[in-house]
């Protein structure tokens, strides 16, 4: 059984935290919707699973096309987040009480995919390194799940403070994060 050193665990933890911060940030915006705790739990688990699956797929494809898809994954993630945010912004001017994008069905898949595309790029490079892949994937999944929960719960608290402006703020956060990925 291969020995894992503490330095490798710490390094992978920092990479996992960096990859999960977008889930935290986007979770802040998404959490401003009226989400039940059961839904928040499910969203966090789904994002965690995507943060395991996407780098795993990246690792599998890493030997073949590492540099060609990395830029595409970043652009696709940024565009998806910006699009979701713009839709939430436009819908915030509707008088409906129904949220624009709900983390259910397609909205959940789009949310989880958009915040895990950067982990696909990291997976491309992990496939060529000597890192412990199982450890990396578990850390990516657990850390992103916890950060998603934290973002959603904080966003839920902010909803109570912001009232009707919460969806406008949530959409703005998604747009800003998408633009930051595209141009930052």
TrEMBL record:
Main location: membrane
Localization terms from the record: Cell membrane
Membrane topology category: Multi-pass membrane protein
Keywords: Cell membrane, Ion transport, Manganese, Membrane, Transmembrane, Transmembrane helix, Transport
Cellular component aspect of the GO annotation: plasma membrane
GO molecular function per UniProt: manganese ion transmembrane transporter activity
Signal peptide: none
Cited InterPro entries: Mntp/YtaF (IPR003810), Put_MntP (IPR022929)
TM annotation in the entry: 6-28, 40-65, 71-90, 102-127, 133-154, 161-183
Pfam families (alphabetical): Mntp
PANTHER family: MANGANESE EFFLUX PUMP MNTP-RELATED
Entry function: Probably functions as a manganese efflux pump.
Record-stated family: Belongs to the MntP (TC 9.B.29) family.
Protein name per Swiss-Prot or TrEMBL: Putative manganese efflux pump MntP
Classification lineage: Bacteria, Bacillati, Bacillota, Bacilli, Bacillales
């Amino acid at each position: 059984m291969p020995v894992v050193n503490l330095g490798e665990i710490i390094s992978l933890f920092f990479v996992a935290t960096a990859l999960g911060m977008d889930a935290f940030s986007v979770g802040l915006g998404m959490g401003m919707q009226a989400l039940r705790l059961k839904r928040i739990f499910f969203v966090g688990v789904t994002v965690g699973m995507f943060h395991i699956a996407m780098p795993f797929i990246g690792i599998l494809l890493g030997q073949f096309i590492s540099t060609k898809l990395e830029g595409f994954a970043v652009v696709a993630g940024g565009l998806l987040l910006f699009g979701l945010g713009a839709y939430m912004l436009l819908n915030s001017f509707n008088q409906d009480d129904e949220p624009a994008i709900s983390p259910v069905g397609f909205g959940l898949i789009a949310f989880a995919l958009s915040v895990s595309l950067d982990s696909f790029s990291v997976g491309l490079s992990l496939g060529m390194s000597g890192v412990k892949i199982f450890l990396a994937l578990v850390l990516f999944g657990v850390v992103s799940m916890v950060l998603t929960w934290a973002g959603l719960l904080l966003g839920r608290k902010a909803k109570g403070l912001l009232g009707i402006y919460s969806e406008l703020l949530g959409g703005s956060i998604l747009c800003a994060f998408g633009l930051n990925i595209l141009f930052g």
